[in-house]
Amino acid sequence: MSDIDQEHRRRGALYGRRKGKPLRAGQAERFDTLLPRLKIDLTTPAPDDLRTLFGAPVDEFRLEIGFGGGEHLLHEAEQNPKTGFIGVEPFLNGMAKALAGIDERKIPNIRLFDNDAALLLDWLPPGCLSRVDLLYPDPWPKKRQFKRRFVSPENLKKIVRALKSGGEFRFASDIESYVEWTLAHVRAQPALQWTAEKADDWRVAWAGWPGTRYEAKAIRETRTPAYLIFRKI
């Protein structure tokens, strides 16, 4: 077990290394060939200039925590070629889908991390990110599981540290209790300010939002998504 995996286990990670369907040959090959080129290595110090992590010229940086199948991550990277994207997803099948999309669409401005996002947030230099996205995270719906939700006082401090002044933390969920949980925790974090001024600011998806398969399922099942934006002040 690597030092990163040991730290992941010691901290009681909010995400586990889970795999669903067996990987196909092409997916497994990308894990062996493409992922090592794109994966961020936390065993080395973070560079002062994150541009050195990317093979494409970029001038700002965003982080997506738990990108699922990668629909949003890949869309945003293609729409914003001058932005460097870091995507975090510990689930192997989700990572496999993202690797396939990056490979097939030749997207140069994405780097990946396949472990606990809290470890990556600790590694990043302060004030380096213009945005952090947490979209439809695991809601851990039972009360005894709430402590495993990614939104927590500790992780919000990590997000604030990594965001530059004026940077945004974006959160989307269809689980009402998690939305209320997030609003309550952010209100207790003075460095983050909710930007909503009217109901449509959280009821209507953000401009340019491509949607995700999970969101479509939630809407089919009559759960109403909420879209929250918090700005670092």
From TrEMBL:
<dbReference type="Pfam" id="PF02390">
    <property type="entry name" value="Methyltransf_4"/>
</dbReference>
<comment type="function">
    <text>Catalyzes the formation of N(7)-methylguanine at position 46 (m7G46) in tRNA.</text>
</comment>
<dbReference type="InterPro" id="IPR029063">
    <property type="entry name" value="SAM-dependent_MTases_sf"/>
</dbReference>
<feature type="binding site">
    <location>
        <begin position="212"/>
        <end position="215"/>
    </location>
    <ligand>
        <name>substrate</name>
    </ligand>
</feature>
<comment type="pathway">
    <text>tRNA modification; N(7)-methylguanine-tRNA biosynthesis.</text>
</comment>
<dbReference type="InterPro" id="IPR003358">
    <property type="entry name" value="tRNA_(Gua-N-7)_MeTrfase_Trmb"/>
</dbReference>
<keyword id="KW-0949">S-adenosyl-L-methionine</keyword>
<keyword id="KW-0489">Methyltransferase</keyword>
<protein>
    <recommendedName>
        <fullName>tRNA (guanine-N(7)-)-methyltransferase</fullName>
        <ecNumber>2.1.1.33</ecNumber>
    </recommendedName>
</protein>
<dbReference type="GO" id="GO:0043527">
    <property type="term" value="C:tRNA methyltransferase complex"/>
</dbReference>
<feature type="binding site">
    <location>
        <position position="64"/>
    </location>
    <ligand>
        <name>S-adenosyl-L-methionine</name>
    </ligand>
</feature>
<dbReference type="GO" id="GO:0008176">
    <property type="term" value="F:tRNA (guanine(46)-N7)-methyltransferase activity"/>
</dbReference>
<feature type="binding site">
    <location>
        <position position="174"/>
    </location>
    <ligand>
        <name>substrate</name>
    </ligand>
</feature>
<keyword id="KW-0808">Transferase</keyword>
<feature type="compositionally biased region" description="Basic residues">
    <location>
        <begin position="9"/>
        <end position="22"/>
    </location>
</feature>
<feature type="region of interest" description="Disordered">
    <location>
        <begin position="1"/>
        <end position="22"/>
    </location>
</feature>
<keyword id="KW-0819">tRNA processing</keyword>
<feature type="binding site">
    <location>
        <position position="89"/>
    </location>
    <ligand>
        <name>S-adenosyl-L-methionine</name>
    </ligand>
</feature>
<feature type="binding site">
    <location>
        <position position="116"/>
    </location>
    <ligand>
        <name>S-adenosyl-L-methionine</name>
    </ligand>
</feature>
<feature type="binding site">
    <location>
        <position position="138"/>
    </location>
    <ligand>
        <name>S-adenosyl-L-methionine</name>
    </ligand>
</feature>
<comment type="similarity">
    <text>Belongs to the class I-like SAM-binding methyltransferase superfamily. TrmB family.</text>
</comment>
<feature type="binding site">
    <location>
        <position position="142"/>
    </location>
    <ligand>
        <name>substrate</name>
    </ligand>
</feature>
<dbReference type="InterPro" id="IPR055361">
    <property type="entry name" value="tRNA_methyltr_TrmB_bact"/>
</dbReference>
